[in-house]
Amino acid sequence: MGFCLRHNNKSGIILIVVLWVLAILSVLAIGLGRAARMDLSLAKHRAGKVRADFLSWAAAHYAMNQLRLDGEDAAFSSTDTAYTCGFAAKEGETPEEIFKNVTLASGSFDIGYPLKDSAGNNYMCYGFQDEDRYLNINGIHQQNYRILAQLLILLGVAQDQVENIAAQIVDWKDADTENMALGLGAEKNDYGSLDAKFCKDAPFENIEELMLVQGMTEDVFAKIKNVVTVFPRQDVSLGVNINTVIPVVLQALFRFSAENNPSVGVTDADSLAEKIVTYRKGDDGVLCTADDRPVKIANAPGELGLNVSEQAVFAAAMNYLKETSDHLRFHAKSVDSQFHVATELEAVVGRENLSLLLWKRK
To answer: What is the pLDDT of residues 283-334, one digit of tens each?
Structure first.
């Protein structure tokens, strides 16, 4: 009897040990399986990312080729609108057909950027987004700094900040060591404890550089960063594309043009900007659609139905207006077909020699 009890106890202990070993092995197997799945998933993602990255290079070459073809077609390259900017479409061909879902062996890419309609809904504009729709801060000088001041006012920057920030931006980029005007601007000696090099006395190279300018705050930077550009990165004459320039920049330009003419005022400047913005959209009232209308500077007073005051404002602003854009930005999203991994690319290209000026990939 005692032997049977001892035998049964020993068998029970062995069974428990076996069960524990099986449990531990099961946990290890599950863990190893999970790790293997994670490794496989990461490997697939890496492979997909490599493919998507190469697709983004393909998108860049595709975009550059569209620009090259556009340069060879005088009818297209003479005028840019939001709908046809930087590319030459064949008869009946749409930007969507050229830039949406461009398929290669390993995946596809789209080139375009989002816009909002009057109801606030997003829609895609396929093709290039030109830089000459923004205000180039490298084209702001002592003679025209009030354009930037007017832009800051329209963006809701406090009146007591406007003049000085605009002047300090001029002093940051100009080559002299004199303050722009009495009580305005900031040169090297005004930067206090900061190293003197922080007054650059050279053109802006990127938008973020604005944060180094004396008087600039995060709040003001947040308001201005999406309406200005630094291209070209040289001290240049200011010019915006009348067919693509964003409404607030156009409004600021016309308000500046009206400042020194006692016979016109802010309302004339604003109504002129509104007429141009409305005209460009065509009959459907939506930007970047087939009925977009280009504004010809020489014919604008008649085409737009300008009154005498609006004509005076327009005439004063003509030196800052053009019909084509010299620098184009494109946004490309590439997706590999096997693992559906995406890469996004943003680049800026100089139109004259197809030089790549900015490249951001994520």
So the answer is: 999 999 999 999 999 999 999 999 999 999 999 999 999 999 999 999 999 9
Phi then psi dihedrals of residue 361, to 5 deg: -130, 140
Which residues are within 8 A (CB) of 179 and not within 5 positions of it... i.e. 6 or more apart? 167, 171, 185, 186, 187, 190
CB atoms within 10 A of CB 123: 13
Summarised one tens digit per residue, pLDDT across range 130-170 is 999 999 999 999 999 999 999 999 999 998 899 999 999 99
Specify if 25 maps to a domain.
Answer: no
Helix (H, G, I), strand (E, B) or coil at 195: coil
> Model pTM?
0.84
Residue 75 belongs to a domain: no
Pairing of strands 107-116, 122-126: antiparallel
Whether residue 31 is contained in a domain is answered as no
CA–CA separation, 257 vs 315, rounded Å? 9
CATH number reported for the structural domain that contains residue 234 in this entry:
1.10.40.60
Look up the domain containing 240 and give its range.
133-322
